[in-house]
Amino acid sequence: MGVELGGIGRVLIGAAVALLVLGGLFLLLGRLGIDRLPGDLVFRRGGLTVYFPLGLMILLSVAGTILLNIFLRR
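== DUF2905 family protein ==
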């Protein structure tokens, strides 16, 4: 019933690295101007702006699926 701390540590380090890579990717995409793609929804009312990046999420989903299929193919 003991918890293996080494395994938990590896998971936490892996999650931190994944978040670091994801943050860097978002910074890079913002500089390239990919943050406003067709399909993104922006609602403005008075002083409130709500932004739904649907186009970017679809693009990232397709890219992630392709990368995972390449790297995890058996």
